Automatic annotation (TrEMBL):
This is DNA damage-inducible protein 1. Residues 1-70 form the Ubiquitin-like domain. GO terms for molecular function: aspartic-type endopeptidase activity; polyubiquitin modification-dependent protein binding. The keyword Lyase does not apply. Residues 367-408 form the UBA domain. Residues 327-365 are annotated as: Disordered. Residues 345-358 have a biased composition (Polar residues). Belongs to the DDI1 family. It is found in: Cytoplasm. One of its GO terms (cellular component) is cytoplasm.
Length: 408
């Protein structure tokens, strides 16, 4: 393995040495490199003195670790300034920071191996420096513990059921770690945040950013957005309901048709109105199908009417910051399809006659009650479709619907 040794005159020396070598042999190698006699060397690892008879492996020294070398002729104050506490933090963080800053070789090595620590060293926040030193110490301790456990499992009793379970878990975790490392190397973009698909549209002459979601069955507009677009006056409250997803939102009703502008073309659009703060305007599958839209991810555009009009998907910088909020975006991504689907189901229930209570809640009991009324009126000799329309018109009132049918 290779370790890094910092000498009293601020030189950085990389030493290749076996983990099972003694500290005394390490000092002998350093004597050749630094011309400091073995007897005058004192080595510190994690703030503790390394004794000549101890093995590097027993001290927990691993690949890439830092060992401090001080001369016995140095003052005890100098030793303490560059040593570490048991939790891995520096005894004197300011002195440690200045010491590392002054060594260009060490800084170059840090930028290669640990850019986060290098940036903190160059900063002015000593508390952050101490925190990251503690974290690195914790990570090394955890790695050392895992290595010790793996070593112990190699010599475990093959008939010990618990030991075999641990071996199986270790093998599985190793496969996961290798898969993760391969993904980092060959598919790093998979770890980046995916920007959702937004396009510029105009709804009733008002420009807005529309979220394109082919996983949502219905096109949705929020109450506040509908009000801004001057469409609330067209709200049909007979289509009220509850959209269930991650949480739930109230369906205030439906706007049956309004003009939307994509590019230079106008298209008719209908949408559900939701009382939801998590989205503004969602262009769902119903309108994507109606207007023969194509989500072209190669050219990064939304094609409308089979390619008649193309609207580019917006880059992240052009999407309003509140749309990119992590919490809201995750809710939209996970629930938009569920909410829109629920809304579409509510709408489907209403269209099939779910107005027996006038609220359009779509409950199972209401469906059964409505169907019972339909059956009763059909038995009187009226056509099923006429009965459904009559019940819808009179919001489920059986007597008024019967009077209307008899009068017709």
């Amino acid at each position: 393995m290779r370790i890094t040794v910092m000498t009293p005159d601020e030189q950085i020396i990389n030493i290749d040495i076996d983990r099972d070598e003694s500290v005394e042999n390490l000092k002998a190698l350093l004597e050749v490199e630094t011309q400091v006699e073995l007897q005058k060397q004192q080595l510190l690892y994690n703030g503790k003195e390394m004794r000549n008879t101890e093995r590097l492996s027993a001290l927990g020294v691993n690949e890439g670790d830092l060992v401090m070398m001080v001369s016995l002729s140095s003052s005890s104050g100098s030793i303490n300034e560059l040593s570490f506490n048991p939790d891995g933090s520096a005894v004197n963080p300011a002195a440690f920071q200045q010491h590392v800053r002054n060594d260009s070789n060490l800084m170059a090595q840090l930028f290669q191996s640990d850019p986060e620590l290098a940036q903190v060293v160059l900063g002015n926040d000593l508390n952050k420096l101490q925190a990251i030193l503690r974290e690195r110490h914790r990570q090394k301790s955890e790695l050392r513990r895992q290595q010790e456990e793996e070593l112990a499992l190699l010599y475990a009793d093959p008939f010990d059921v618990e030991a075999q379970k641990k071996i199986e878990a270790a093998i599985r975790q190793k496969g996961i770690d290798e898969n993760w490392a391969a993904a980092l190397e060959h598919n790093p973009e998979a770890f980046a945040r995916v920007v959702m698909l937004y396009v510029d549209m105009e709804v009733n002459g008002v420009p807005l950013k529309a979220f394109v979601d082919s996983g949502a069955q219905s096109t949705i507009i929020s109450k506040s957005c509908a009000e801004r677009c001057g469409l609330l006056r067209l709200l049909d409250q007979r289509y009220k309901g509850i959209a269930h997803g991650v949480g739930q939102s109230e369906i205030l009703g439906r706007i049956h048709v309004a003009p939307i502008k994509i590019g230079n073309q106008f298209y008719p659009c209908s949408f559900l109105v939701l009382d939801s703060p998590n989205m503004e305007f969602l262009f769902g599958l119903d309108m994507l199908r109606k207007h023969q839209c194509i989500i072209d991810l190669k050219e990064n555009v939304l094609r409308v009417a089979g390619g008649e009009v193309s609207a580019p998907f917006l880059p992240e910088k052009d999407i309003p910051s509140h749309f990119m909020d992590e919490e809201r975006l995750s809710k939209e991504a996970s629930s938009s399809g569920a909410q829109a689907t629920s809304g579409a189901k509510e709408n489907s229930n209403i269209l099939s006659g779910d107005h027996s209570s006038g609220t359009g809640r779509g409950g199972l009991a209401q469906n059964r009650d409505f169907e019972a009324k339909v059956t009763k009126l059909v038995e009187l000799g009226f056509g099923r479709e006429a009965v459904i329309q009559a019940l819808k018109f009179f919001e489920g009132n059986e007597e008024q619907a019967a009077g209307y049918l008899f009068g017709g």
